[in-house]
Amino acid sequence: MSNVQLFISCTLIWGSTWIAITFQLGDVDPVLSVAYRFTIASIILGCVCWYKKLPLKLPMHIHFKMAAVGLCLYTLDYSFLYESQKYLVSAVVALMSSCIIYINVIMRRLLLKKPIRLEVVLGATFGLVGMAMIFVPQFEHAQSQMFLSLGITLACISFVCAAFGNVISERILDHGTPVIQMNFWAMTYALVFLYGYAFLNGAELVFPSSTDYYLSLLFLAVFGSVLAFGAYMKLVQQIGSDKAAYVVLMYPLVALFISTLFEGYQWQLPALIGVLVVLLGNAIAMGKVPLSLGAFKTRQAND
To answer: Which position among 78, 85, 109, 237 has the lowest Cβ density within 10 Å, counted as fewest Cβ atoms?
Structure first.
């Protein structure tokens, strides 16, 4: 698949998981639901590796890095994010999530010694402005939240953990580690942390009777985890974790369009303009818009 196809796949799948996640909330502790999700995903990836006879033996230093991805990206990121949503409305979380691109850029520079790309920073800024235009008007309808500072702190921790996971994943992939094997091991290691955290936190092992819960769980495991994370890690491998992180800005737009169809979301002019600004930011971040006259002339010459 091309980078564009991988990017669109991640955006569409993760945008639709927002609806699926609503069926996961209720009887089961959120962290356990995430653990169930990655248990199924890990089993599927293990079966793929077995069926295709993909080698699972990797150097020990890669295993340590994959365990770190499992901890940061699949455990801490999700756990802190779910906790933050107890204190913040989803619009605030969606707006704050755009900051992960800046964190990725900084982490990538500090840990991987890779250059800061101007187009990514500028594109992220456009994306942040666009997200603000879409979501800030919704704050007026939100009730005042207690423990607002705690919610913001938890959300910020989750974004830092996600950025660490992204950058470590890029380092693993730079070593030539195949995406399928990396995701299998990272998700498998995540299970130790997820179940351990859930039980230490006093979560009760519950299996609900609702059919909707299991259908949404399968969707999240197969599409949201196996396919989407596979496509995302391939993007990280091919374009870098800084550019790949722009998916975080795009999939909330898909969620809004789905909400329009199923939940009656009402579009306002600022939100429509905000979508266009986010799309412009995406084009800039992906290098589709020349940032200088010299770049424009170069592109003309190449054409």
So the answer is: 109
With b for 16 or more beta-carbon neighbours within 10 A and e for fewer, the 28-47 pattern comes to bbbbbbbbbbbbbbbebbbe
Take residue 280 and report the two structure tokens written for it. 């412009």
Contacts of 161 (CB under 8 A, 6+ apart): 72, 73, 76, 77, 80
* Separation between Cα atoms, residue 288 and residue 278, nearest integer Å: 14
Contact 219, 20 (CB under 8 A): yes
Q: Label residue 120 exposed, middle or buried (CB < 10 Å: 0-12, 13-18, 19+).
A: buried
Q: How confident is the model at residue 70 (pLDDT cuts 50, 70, 90)?
A: very high
Task: Tell me what the pLDDT averaged over the chain comes to.
Answer: 82
Q: Which residues contact 57 (CB under 8 A, 6 or more apart)?
A: none
81-124 pLDDT, tens digit each: 777 766 766 656 666 676 777 777 888 888 888 888 888 888 87
Most distant pair of Cα atoms in the chain: their distance: 64
* The pLDDT value given to residue 303: 44
Tokens of 167: 């950058």
